[in-house]
């Protein structure tokens, strides 16, 4: 793989770009699910700049919102794509309860 020039990225962003880039180089269709679509689009651009044949999409997903999770699931299902691999990269939340609008915890 030829090296690519990356801007200064936070550790999580650099890991994401690296993982997605490798998967895309191996022919995977990668969906970046994120709360921050702007950052995901920047990551997607970096990946496509180094591999114009990459199949990378971004989709909004906020795991703290049941509505967002439901919308993401519906939109993903509508794409009619297989889900072969799931990579979770989430921070820890050290609270006793995390209620949602529907009082989930």
From TrEMBL:
Segments crossing the lipid bilayer: none
Domain of life of the organism encoding this protein: Eukaryota
Coiled-coil portions: none
Alphabetical list of Pfam families matching this protein: adh_short (PF00106)
SUPFAM superfamilies recorded: NAD(P)-binding Rossmann-fold domains
Protein name: Uncharacterized protein
């Amino acid at each position: 793989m030829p090296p690519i020039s990356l801007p200064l990225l936070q550790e999580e962003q650099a890991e994401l770009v690296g993982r997605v880039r490798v998967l895309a180089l191996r022919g995977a269709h990668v969906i970046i699910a994120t709360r921050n679509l702007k950052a995901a689009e920047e990551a997607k651009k970096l990946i496509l700049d180094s591999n114009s044949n990459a199949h990378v999409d971004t989709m909004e997903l906020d795991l703290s919102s049941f509505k967002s999770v439901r919308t993401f699931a519906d939109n993903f299902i509508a794409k009619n794509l297989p889900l072969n691999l799931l990579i979770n990269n989430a921070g820890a939340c050290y609270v006793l309860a995390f209620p949602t609008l529907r009082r989930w915890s």
